[in-house]
Design goal:
The chain is about 30% helix and about 25% strand. It has about 575 residues and is an alpha/beta fold. The strands form 5 sheets. Strands 7-6-5-3-2-1-20-21 form an 8-stranded mixed beta sheet. It has a 6-stranded mixed beta sheet with strand order 8-9-10-11-12-19. Helix 4 packs across helix 8, helix 11 crosses helix 12 and helix 14 runs antiparallel to helix 15. The chain is globular.
Length: about 575
């Protein structure tokens, strides 16, 4: 999806410049390659490689969560085959912030690497990563803390971290110095003028570093379709306080476990209302513990109680912070809504706040949870009814500000669906970047820079890796297609016994249907007769066993479609004796 396959020459370069005659041929210099492996097709699985000669760094290693089309899939990772094939070049893994769409692939990638390049990130981000890696028994993996304003050297690359606002503390942009030119990768960001922790984005550092010249800007596109400026996170705190103050029973707030700023505002509102805080959900327990230990989440011990002690207090003295804002089936909120949670139940008059926006694909699951809660006579607040969530991503005017601060020669929108990338491209055009200097890329495409300019020069392996239980990469699109087929049309299994030497059928055909209405005796009889006729004809024609199966499958599929207008999966099972 790159805007142009033709070489774009930087403004200060002269096109068609020819070498002087008789000049000795110089050894060719390596080119700089920018290779996005994820984050340019969906929201999530962000991963970008910067490569020069025998040196390479990775910026972010995220995952995405499955939607309704990914039946049975637990997680989705970017295809990092190219990284494994070139791991000898990998000098560092740079993480911009602690959200799982930027960190979640790390345990799987590290397990497949034979080298151990350090993970470089800020303090809270490293704390969250350590918590995740410990679940995979990777406690001793090398890490290096990055401090905004500090310069780090890895191979030919120089790294500077710039503090930016997002929906989690310690989010940073990364300024990458390369032998060809400077690159600025924003990570996820917004320009919040009244952030919860009081630390505004470091505009001065962005401007200072950009004065050295930015050859390429890679900028967050998630909010590119939103007009104006994203509302401040602090506005959510005021609404949460109002709701909690007015609530009569217990209050249950579902949020992303990594949204530390939101959790702080929930905790502050609970304390101001004279309520104790209960935390439930595995990731919520883990992340709050890490954030409290590192000083990013201030909850005093006297304001915090264990979920098993909840019955000791009146309902109007409790605020529960839990996972499940996306309607995940096994999350704390889903179990509470279904009446299956061990310690927390919904009583009439309780208040539930979904303090998040449904990730695309999760809308139905979230709606189902809301309906379950309402049936239990809970009062439910969500983004559609109250200001209980704001985005952590820059809207169009903030994206213009970033472009004008940085003044890049080239621009690549990242982190978004194709519609977000194209909207960001239009924003870049609006602030004056020529179209030939804007590259809207596809995952796996290689953007190459040399002394003459930039050009998309090819592709590397790319796609999705599905995590299905303990299996990583074994599930593919064929498996998912079969699961969708089974879920929509069901399955019919035909069990037959044949003597291949004598070419005869032994006994009757057994029909087993799942998800298909074949209870009518005449229909079942038709299936049996058609199967027997097809079997005998195929055997008499001398067909081999695979050809017999295929003939039965095609014949029965046609019969079922004629009778029901559905196409279930037909599985002939032939027992040879």
């Amino acid at each position: 999806m790159a805007h142009s396959k033709n070489r774009s020459t930087r403004p200060q370069q002269q096109q068609n410049e020819k070498p002087k005659p008789n000049k000795p041929t110089q050894p060719s210099k390596p080119t700089l390659k920018v290779i996005p492996l994820g984050g340019l097709d969906v929201i999530g699985k962000n991963m970008t490689l910067i490569e020069y000669g025998d040196d390479m760094i990775m910026v972010d290693a995220g995952l995405m969560f499955p939607d309704d089309d990914h039946l049975g899939v637990d997680l989705i990772l970017p295809d990092y085959t190219y990284v494994i094939e070139n791991q000898h070049k990998l000098k560092a893994i740079v993480i911009t912030h602690g959200h799982e769409d930027h960190t979640g692939t790390l345990p799987y990638l590290i397990r497949d690497l034979e080298v151990d390049p350090p993970i470089i990130a800020t303090r809270l981000t490293l704390g969250l990563i350590r918590g995740k890696l410990s679940e995979f028994k990777m406690d001793n993996y090398p890490m290096q803390e990055a401090v905004p304003g500090q310069h780090i050297k890895k191979g030919v690359f120089g790294l500077d971290f710039i503090h930016l606002n997002h929906s989690i503390p310690d989010a940073c942009a990364v300024f990458i110095r390369t032998p060809v030119g400077n690159i600025l990768h924003t990570g996820d960001f917004k320009f919040d003028q009244t952030p919860v922790d009081g630390q505004v984005s470091d505009y001065g550092e962005i401007a200072r570093l950009s004065k050295a010249g930015v050859m390429l800007l890679l900028s967050d596109s998630t909010g590119a379709e939103m007009p104006g400026v994203t509302r401040s996170e602090s506005e959510v705190g005021k609404e949460l306080q109002n709701i909690i103050d007015q609530a009569e029973g217990k209050v249950i707030v579902a949020s992303f476990a990594s949204h530390i700023h939101r959790l702080q505002q929930i905790a502050d509102a609970a304390k101001n209302a004279g309520r104790k805080i209960v935390v439930t959900g595995r990731s919520m327990l883990q992340n709050t513990a890490i954030a409290r230990e590192l000083g990013y989440l201030e909850i005093e011990d006297r304001d915090y109680i264990d979920a098993y002690e909840i019955k000791k207090l009146p309902s109007d003295k409790i605020v529960v912070m839990c996972t499940g804002s996306q309607g995940e089936p096994l999350s704390a909120l889903s179990r509470i809504a279904a009446g299956e949670h061990k310690t927390i139940r919904i009583d009439p008059g309780d208040t539930v706040i979904l303090s998040a926006t449904p990730v695309p694909g999760n809308e139905r699951a979230v709606t189902n949870v809301i309906n379950q809660l309402v049936r239990r006579n809970a009062r439910v607040y969500h983004k559609g009814s109250s200001l209980v969530h704001v985005s952590g991503h820059a809207a169009s005017e903030e994206l213009k500000l970033m472009l004008n601060l940085v003044q890049p020669e080239y621009f690549m929108p990242v982190h978004g669906e194709p519609r977000h990338l194209m909207a960001h491209r239009q924003i870049a055009l609006d602030v004056g970047i020529p179209p030939e200097y804007i590259f809207v890329m596809d995952n796996g495409e290689v953007l190459e820079f040399d002394d003459e300019g930039a050009m998309v020069t090819g592709t590397v392996p790319n796609g999705m890796i599905y995590v299905d239980g303990l299996n990583v990469g074994d599930t593919d699109h064929v498996v998912l297609r079969d699961r969708q087929h089974l879920s929509q049309d069901g399955m019919v299994t035909l069990i037959m016994t044949v003597n291949m030497k004598r070419r005869t059928v032994l006994g009757d055909v057994q029909v087993i249907a799942r998800g298909v209405s074949v209870h009518d005796e005449s229909f079942t009889e038709d299936l049996t007769k058609r199967t027997m006729r097809t079997l005998k004809r195929s055997l008499e024609d001398g067909a081999q066993i695979n050809a017999v199966r295929r003939a039965v499958r095609e014949s029965i599929s046609q019969l079922i479609y004629e009778k029901t207008k559905t196409r279930p999966m037909v599985i002939p099972v032939i027992i040879e004796v």
